[in-house]
Amino acid sequence: MLENEEALDAYLEKTCDAENELLSRINRETYLKETMPHMLSGHFQGRVLSMLAKLARPKRILEIGTFTGYATLCLAEALEEGGVLHTIDVNEEQEERVRAYFDASAYGDQIHYHIGDAAEVIPQLAGDFDLVFIDADKKRNLYYFETLIDRVPSGGLILLDNVLWKGKVLLDNPDSQTKRVLELNEALAADKRVEKLILPIRDGLFVLRKK
Fold first, then answer.
1. Which DSSP symbol is given to 149?
2. What's the pLDDT at 3?
3. Element holding 198 (H helix, E strand)
4. C-alpha angle with apex 163: 159 to 168, nearest 5 degrees?
5. How far is CA 144 from CA 16, 61, 134, 177, 191, in A?
C-alpha cells in the first residue's frame, strides 16, 4: 500500500505545475536540516494552496504556523498588488533562515513574519483577512477558528491542515490527540456560518468558505 501511495504522490506531482527554484530549495533544505521535515506542505499541497488562494484573490492573508516558509510562499503567489501576508510562528531558531527565503522571493516586501505566540500576535494585527491558513498547534485549532471567523468577510476562506490525522480519525478507540481532531472536525462540520469540505490530500485539508 505504501508503495502505491508513493507512486500516486509522484504522479500527482508530475501532473501539476513544477516547483520553482526557491520552493525546490526550501523543500530540499528542510529535509536536510529539520528533525520533522514531514511538517512541510510539500509540492502537491503547495500547488493546491496556491490554486485555492488564487481563486480567492486575497488582498490580506493570515497564516498561523510558518515552519520553513514553503506554504507561505505558495499562498503569497496569489497576492494582488498591494496585498499583504502575515505569518506567525513560535520557533525563533528558524527565523534567520526563513527570512532569507522570503527575501529571496518576489514577495519579500509583502510578507510580514511574526515570531511569537499566535494567540498574542493575532489581536495585534488590524483588519480582516480574505484567507486564513491554520497549520500550527492542533490543540488550539478551534480557538483560532473561533477567534478569526468574524474577521473573515463573506466569501473568504479558512483552511486547516492535518484534519485526517494520518487516518487516525477512523479508529474505533482514538487517542487523546485524535479526539481533539475529531472534536474540531465535528464542530466545523456543524457550523452554519461556513460551507465546508475536507480535501483528502496528504494529512487532510479542511476548506471552509464564509457564507
1. G
2. 61
3. strand 194-199
4. 170
5. 31, 14, 8, 17, 14
Q: State the pLDDT at residue 4.
A: 81
Strand partners, 61: 85, 131
182 neighbors 156 (Cβ within 8 angstroms): no
In the block, residue with C-alpha cell 510562499: 73
Secondary structure, 3-state, 77-128: CCCCCCCEEEEEECCHHHHHHHHHHHHHCCCCCCEEEEECCHHHHHHHCCCC
Nearest to 131 by CA among 182, 71, 200, 198: 71
Q: Report yes or no: 19 and 50 within 8 Å, Cβ to Cβ.
A: no
- pTM value is 0.94
Phi, psi of 105 (to 5 degrees): -90, 175
Q: Give the other-Cβ count within 10 Å of 2's Cβ.
A: 6
Task: Kindly give the parts of the chain with pLDDT less than 70.
Answer: 1-3
* 136 vs 139: CA distance, rounded Å: 9
Element (H, E) at 73: helix 70-76
b/e sequence 160-186, b meaning 16+ C-beta within 10 Å? bbbbbbeeebeeeeeeeebebbbebbe
Show the cell assigned to 68: 520553513
Query: Which residue has cell 499566535?
Result: 118
For position 1, what pLDDT does the model report?
44
